[in-house]
Design goal:
Layout (H helix, E strand, L loop, with lengths): L1 H25 L16 H6 L3 H34 L2 H16 L2 H19 L6 H26 L4 H7 L4 H30 L2 H6 L7 H9 L6 H35 L1
C-alpha cells in the first residue's frame, strides 16, 4: 500500500512539474523551436534583457506585487486583529464577507472593479485606468488571503497576552509589537507570500483594470500570444520560477531556525 501511494504521489508531482522542467530546459535552447533541441545557448536571456516591452511589463508586475503585498499585509493583519476582537456572531459574518472575494469568480470581480473605476473616472476625473487602478485592484483581492492566514495564529494566541504586557508597564503599541506581533509573525509572512504570489499570477482582474499605460506580464503575454510567442517567454518564466523558489526556500529555512527558539521560550 505504501509503495502504491508513493508511486501515485510520484506521478502527481511529475505531472505538475514536468512542464516546468521542460520550460526551463528549452529556455537554454539555441533555436526558436519549442520541441527540437539545437544546443545550449544563453541567446534568449540576452534577448530578454533587450526587449523593452517585456522589461516594462516586468517592472510593472514586480512593483505592483511588492507594493500590493506590503499594503495588503498591513491592512489584512489589522483587519484580522479587528475581526478577532469582536463577538463570535459578528466574527462569522465578517469572515464570510472576507471569504466571498476568494470564492467569487475572478471575472465578476474584475468587471465590478472596472465598472467602479470607470464610474469614478467619469464623475470625478480620478482613477483613470492605468497603474494606480491596477494597484488598487491587486490590493483589494490580496487582503482576504492575508486575513485568512493571520486568523489561525490569532486563534492560537493567548487572549490575555496583550493585557499582561500592558499590566507589566508596556504602552499599548509597544505591547503589540513586542508581545503579539512575534507570535503571529509566521501567519503574516505566509499571508504576504500568498499575496505576492497571487499578485504575480493574476490575469483576469488585471485584464479589466489595467490601462494601455500600465500592463503586467500576464496581460502583455496574452497580447503577444495573438502574434507569436518567442522563447524569451521561456527565459522570463524560468527567472520568475527561480526567484519564487528561492524566496520559499529562504522562508522555510527561517521558520525551521526559529522553531527551536519558540520551543525554548514555551518551555
Amino acid at each position: 500500500m505504501k509503495t502504491l501511494s508513493r508511486v501515485y504521489n510520484g506521478i502527481i508531482f511529475a505531472f505538475l512539474y514536468a512542464p516546468i522542467l521542460v520550460l526551463i530546459i528549452f529556455s537554454f535552447n539555441d533555436s526558436k523551436s519549442r520541441v527540437v533541441w539545437n544546443g545550449f545557448s544563453l541567446r534568449w536571456y540576452e534577448a530578454l534583457f533587450q526587449n523593452d516591452e517585456i522589461l516594462s511589463a516586468l517592472w510593472v508586475t514586480l512593483s505592483i506585487a511588492i507594493v500590493a503585498t506590503i499594503v495588503s499585509t498591513i491592512i489584512g493583519t489589522a483587519a484580522a486583529i479587528g475581526i478577532r476582537s469582536v463577538n463570535s456572531k459578528l466574527r462569522r459574518v465578517l469572515l464570510a464577507f472576507n471569504n466571498l472575494p476568494m470564492v467569487n469568480p475572478e471575472i465578476v470581480t474584475g468587471i465590478a472593479l472596472m465598472l467602479l473605476f470607470v464610474f469614478i473616472y467619469r464623475t470625478t476625473g480620478l482613477l483613470q485606468p492605468g497603474y494606480f487602478t491596477l494597484l488598487l485592484s491587486h490590493i483589494t483581492f490580496c487582503i482576504p488571503y492575508v486575513v485568512l492566514q493571520v486568523m489561525p495564529k490569532l486563534r492560537q494566541l493567548d487572549p490575555h497576552l496583550y493585557e499582561a504586557a500592558v499590566d507589566l508597564g508596556c504602552r499599548p503599541f509597544t505591547a503589540f509589537i513586542r508581545a503579539v506581533l512575534p507570535q503571529i509573525m509566521p501567519g503574516i509572512i505566509t499571508g504576504a507570500l500568498m499575496a505576492f504570489t497571487m499578485s504575480l499570477d493574476d490575469f483576469v482582474i488585471s485584464l479589466f483594470t489595467s490601462g494601455e499605460s500600465a500592463q503586467n506580464l500576464s496581460v502583455t503575454i496574452y497580447a503577444m500570444v495573438k502574434r507569436r510567442v518567442t522563447p524569451e517567454i521561456n527565459t522570463l518564466s524560468t527567472l520568475m520560477f527561480g526567484a519564487v523558489l528561492i524566496m520559499l526556500i529562504l522562508v522555510n529555512v527561517m521558520q525551521i531556525r526559529s522553531a527551536p527558539k519558540d520551543k525554548r521560550r514555551s518551555s
